[in-house]
Design a protein that fits this description.
This protein is 59% helix and 14% strand. With 106 residues, it is of the alpha+beta class. It has one domain: Arc Repressor Mutant, subunit A. Strand 2 (61-67) and strand 3 form a beta hairpin. The protein starts with a helix and ends in a 5-residue tail after the last helix.
Amino acid sequence: MARETFQTLSEPMYYILLALITEQCGVDIMSRVEKISRGRITVGPGTVYALLDKFLTSGLIRETRVDGRRRSYVITDLGKEFLRKEQDRLHQMLHDGETRSEGELK
């Protein structure tokens, strides 16, 4: 189901799933995305919580804790498999571009 829902991932989607390799709450996800992308990607609360809802519905993540308004999440096995497939797709795209362009882009 996840592959049909998300044909490809935007950078924020990719980095949010990557951040959820370890349990995180929304605020921690925002900070972690910025850190692992070395500041290239920043996500605000609206983006994070909208995507968390979509990922929950698709089974890519699960809620692990609720402490008042603070909720924590972690990636599921399905989410890890989806993330690996997306990484494979991105690697293939890079490989195709490198072998196809053969220095023509320099």
